[in-house]
Amino acid sequence: MAVTLEQAQRVGYVCLKALLRFAFMVANNLVAIPSYVLYLIMLQPLRVLDSQSFWYIEGVLFKWLLAMVASWGWWAGYTVVEWGDDVNAVSEDEAMVLVNHQATGDVCTLMMCLQDKGTVVRQMMWLMDHIFKYTNFGIVSLIHGDFFIRQGRAHRDQQLVLLKEHLEKYYRSRNRKWIVLFPEGGFLRKRRETSQAFAKKNNLPFLKHVTLPRLGATQVILETLVAPQENGTPAGGDAVIKESKSKGLQWVIDATIAYPKGEPLDIQTWILGYRQPTVTHVHYRVFPVKDVPAEPEALTHWLYQRFIEKEDLLTHFYETGAFPPPQGQTKAISREMTLSNLWLVGVQSFAFLSGGMATSTWRETGLSLELLILQNYPA
């Protein structure tokens, strides 16, 4: 089949645009990440004198870094429409966010759509696969205090112990409020067949758009972060909550990500921008933590129900192009989330201006990054 001049020009334009975007992303990383690290090294005295202020500043820098990632998709026309409950109402409370996982673009989508949710982005903790630690953004997540979880049955028990220790040590001491996890334990395409076999063996529903979630991390988070008086009875008459200023985890946010035609965005598409402008849809349901059972068997059933509901939501979306209305209503209301281009340009400009300072300072001081990180931040 002959290629027309117009088709060749279109392909050439897409390739050129992808190359320029990739060059910009590389430059962005080369200036933004070292700047973030250097600022925090310079602020180490503040960490000793006033740790709360130190982690506030770190959170602001972290949010700006995530905004830069969001900008790559935003400027490529990859936008988000939100459905369901308005999570802005609980943005200042502690919450656990359960998300279905289809591709690497899921994380980028969340980085984008949570930007306008108050202080959420700068005060959130992510649970992610340990492989992410070895990416360019891994050092940022390491400093921020995210938890890298190693998948596989052989590591499961040990990882849950480490997660509990991590939460106890870093979650409240760094004033974290939202914790984000993907309970399916991997991408849909990798886990679907195994999940369906498990469902058939245990007489559970057959799911195509999600997989059955794993209980472990969810249970540890609830056990560690929910205040004793939540979920029923107090721990005892004289019990004192260690973190008296915190009300504990108050909400569970069930977030469902849907892509048109079920074709998820991956990180390569997000960076290179070769796909046509795409609207990703995110549906939220908010549950009070007091309504979430604590007993393992009941919690497993509750968690399965959330993903069965996700299956129904996604089935409806792929058939109609919209999520169904809430129970008792006749029409579902959607909300387009927006980002300020001026603000994104300002953040990018700050990163590039800081990059020059970071590069020169790094060369002059000869600081050992690896040693400083190992000494001051969690592994």
Automatic annotation (TrEMBL):
Segments passing through the bilayer: 20-42, 54-75
GO terms for MF: acyltransferase activity
UniProt xrefs under Pfam families: Acyltransf_C, Acyltransferase
Keyword Transmembrane helix: yes
Record-level GO BP terms: phosphatidylinositol acyl-chain remodeling; phospholipid biosynthetic process
Record keywords, A-Z: Acyltransferase, Lipid biosynthesis, Lipid metabolism, Membrane, Phospholipid biosynthesis, Phospholipid metabolism, Transferase, Transmembrane, Transmembrane helix
GO cellular component, as recorded: endoplasmic reticulum
Alphabetical list of SMART domains matching this protein: PlsC
Keyword Lipid biosynthesis listed: yes
Name listed for the protein in its UniProt record: Lysophosphatidylglycerol acyltransferase 1
Phospholipid/glycerol acyltransferase domain boundaries: 95-219
InterPro entries for this protein: Acyltransf_C, Plipid/glycerol_acylTrfase
Similarity annotation: Belongs to the 1-acyl-sn-glycerol-3-phosphate acyltransferase family.
CDD domains: LPLAT_LCLAT1-like
